[in-house]
Amino acid sequence: MDMQRIPAQKGKYNLQDYDKMRETFSWEDAKKHFSWNETGKVNIAYEAVDRHAQNPKLKDKVALYYSSPDREEQLTFEQISKKSNQFANVLKKHDVQKGDRVFLFLPRSPEFYISFFGIIKTGAIAGPLFEAFMEQAVRDRLQDSEAKVLITTPDLLERVPQKDLPELKKIILIENHNETADKYIDYKEEMESASSDFDIEWVDLEDGMLIHYTSGSTGKPKGVYHVHNIMIQQYITAEWVLDLKDDDVYWCTADPGWVTGTSYGIFGPWLKGVSNVVRGGRFSPEAWYDTIEKYNVSVWYTAPTALRKLVSAGEDVVKRFDLSSLRHVMSVGEPLNPEVITWGLEALNHRIHDTWWMTETGAHIIVNFPSQEIRPGSMGKPIPGIEASIVDNEGNELPPNQMGNLAIKEGWPAMMRKIWNNPGKFESYFVNGWYLSGDSAYRDEDGYFWFQGRLDDVINTSGERVGPFEVESKLLEHPAVAEAGVIGKPHPERGEIIKAFISLNEGYEDASELLEDIRQFVKTGLSAHAAPRELEVTDAIPKTRSGKIMRRLLKSRELGLPTGDTSTLEK
Ligand code: WTA
Questions:
Q1: Distance of alpha carbon 252 from alpha carbon 551, whole angstroms
Q2: What is this model's ipTM?
Q3: What is any Pfam family matched here (predicted)?
Q4: Which end of the chain is more exposed for a tag (fewer CB within 10 A), N or C?
């Protein structure tokens, strides 16, 4: 669909001339933005926090505006620097060493941000877990990463299967609790007695600092491993894509359990020394507009699912709020419908800039820049310094307007450096020097990229990546379920919903109470966002002769599409 193009915005942007920057930019030059370029001493926590805390002009600037229905707080760069020093001292006292995995299973709260930087200051690797994860999801991630320390709340602790986690040595509880064993550390108590001076661990650019678990189409979630070097691309994209300026107030709505919530909910703004808004609590159109109004948010980064909900809430709601502080709006995570862009122009009086990237890419890859024309439905163009293309399965580039694998030339700064514990998986992403994203797309004659869909079975529900295998495995644990096949089914507001096809064991009958029980089983065992919204009982789940579930076939049947090649189908 080629709707009317939206002309470039007028104004002074950090990236004014895309074509020129593509020609002249080099990642080597980008390193000059960092003090380590001269000192050789690197730590992303220093660049994002301590550097500003030591700068008389920035130390008292609000770094974090935190707001949730029952709590409001502001922290300056100096306060975050000191508190994260205290936390780093707590970790050291309990024997956390460089390279150890320290996981965070917390609601969005100031403590999350303080402990996150505390971890990185010790040279350890931070692993944020989405707050909605239930026992199975928590177990898989803590087992695979062999996490040594976990920071959590007494409520969430109930979902941590400690007997299955022999490597987990300490649990830090940030709220009041009744645990007395040595294993438990009281956050408040230890923070009070910890010094606010800390000798930061200087590391190599290629040393690890973050693991985000994400889903593929096969197997358990995989630990995408990022190193301190990621900061180069986070910084440059915070400048060009977020277009951040010193006096901006920035709000990224993503949860730090997902990559957008760290790369652009923490690092992007703070590497640039910009005030960052974090909102806890549930979504509601009123609360979201109110956040923009209350903090005078100028740069806003959100997602299509949320925007679609705002569209359905209606224009009357928007009109009740003063959103005049906004100057730049972006979206990520799912295809951005042209209709939503049109709504943005009318209701917000702003262009909404789509951005495309992945957990594995670490930072923006293809985006719409404020100084460029937008072609609604297109994700935009690759950032300077990045070579993106459309390739066939052997890694040969395809001509314009031909659909294929959306691919990136290996070696961009923010690229994941490995999949934790799984070197084979890492290798499997690359073909002929290209990283294959798993997305299909085409590129038009002018170099704009157009997203078409996933090439694998990964489901994108409300912008969250869900692996069908994880859901199927959980379903199979239910006593009634004999076989399960899980697909993503298109949905107007959520992008996709999860639909599960199951066959039942003998003695069970297809009844709505049973299906609801199965749904709850996934919801309370794995996580709410992974629970199938639709469950259908079917006699036979189509499988290949080697026993692999043919999700494609389930999907085309569901959508009434041609079923394609079924020659490998088990007869
Ligand atoms: C999808 C989120 C269409 C895509 C940062 C990708 C998008 C996956 C867009 C990565 C977009 C992300 N338009 N689809 N602008 N951005 N996606 O790892 O399928 O949670 O491969 O990273 O989301 O999801 P992830």
A1: 34
A2: 0.99
A3: AMP-binding
A4: C
Which atom belonging to ligand 1 lies closest to the Cα atom of 355? 15
User: Ligand 1 centroid vs 357 CA: distance in angstroms?
Assistant: 6
Q: How far is the CA of 479 from the centre of ligand 1 (A)?
A: 35
Dihedral angle of Cα 543, 546, 547, 550, to the nearest 10 degrees: -30
For 213, the token pair is 């678990």
Burial class (CB in 10 A: 0-12, 13-18, 19+), 346: exposed
Nearest CA to ligand 1 atom 10: 358
Comparing CA positions, the residue from 49, 22, 51, 57 lying closest to residue 36 is 51
* 352, 370 contact by CB (below 8 A): no
Stated as kind and residue range, the H or E segment containing 249 is strand 249-252
Q: For ligand 1, what atom is nearest to the CA of residue 260?
A: 5
Close Cβ partners of 175 (under 8 Å, ≥ 6 residues apart) = 153, 154, 155, 187
Quote the DSSP letter at residue 15: -
CA distance 223 to 211: 6
Q: What is the pLDDT along the chain (571 residues), one digit of tens a residue?
A: 456 899 998 899 999 999 999 999 999 999 999 989 998 899 999 999 999 999 999 999 999 999 999 999 999 999 999 999 999 999 999 999 999 999 999 999 999 999 999 999 999 999 999 999 999 999 999 999 999 999 999 999 999 999 999 999 999 999 999 999 999 999 999 999 999 999 999 999 999 999 999 998 888 999 999 999 999 999 999 999 999 999 999 999 999 999 999 999 999 999 999 999 999 999 999 999 999 999 999 999 999 999 999 999 999 999 999 999 999 999 999 999 999 999 999 999 999 999 999 999 999 999 999 999 999 999 999 999 999 999 999 999 999 999 999 999 999 999 999 999 999 999 999 999 999 999 999 999 999 999 999 999 999 999 999 999 999 999 999 999 999 999 999 999 999 999 999 999 999 999 999 999 999 999 999 999 999 999 999 988 998 888 888 999 999 999 998 877 666 666 5
> Whose alpha carbon is nearest atom 8 of ligand 1?
358
C-alpha distances out from residue 241 to 167, 363, 366, Å: 40, 11, 10
Q: How far is the CA of 355 from the centre of ligand 1 (A)?
A: 9
Question: Whose CA is closest to atom 22 on ligand 1?
Answer: 358
**Tokens representing residue 255 in the block:** 């949860």
Cβ neighbors of 304 (< 8 A, separation 6 or more) are 331, 333, 334, 335, 336, 337, 340, 463, 495
Alpha helices in 7-160 (DSSP H): 18-24, 27-30, 36-39, 44-45, 51-53, 77-93, 110-121, 135-145, 154-157
Please tell me the distance between residue 304's alpha carbon and the centre of ligand 1 in angstroms. 11
The Cβ of residue 435 has, within 10 Å, a number of other Cβ atoms equal to 24
Structure tokens at 246: 């010193």
Question: What's the residue count for the chain?
Answer: 571
Q: Which atom of ligand 1 is nearest to the CA of 359?
A: 18
Ligand 1 pocket test, pick from 358, 435, 464 with the greatest ligand atom count within 8 Å of Cβ, gives 358
Residue to substitute in 356, 375, 406 for testing ligand 1 pocket (most ligand atoms within 8 angstroms of CB): 356
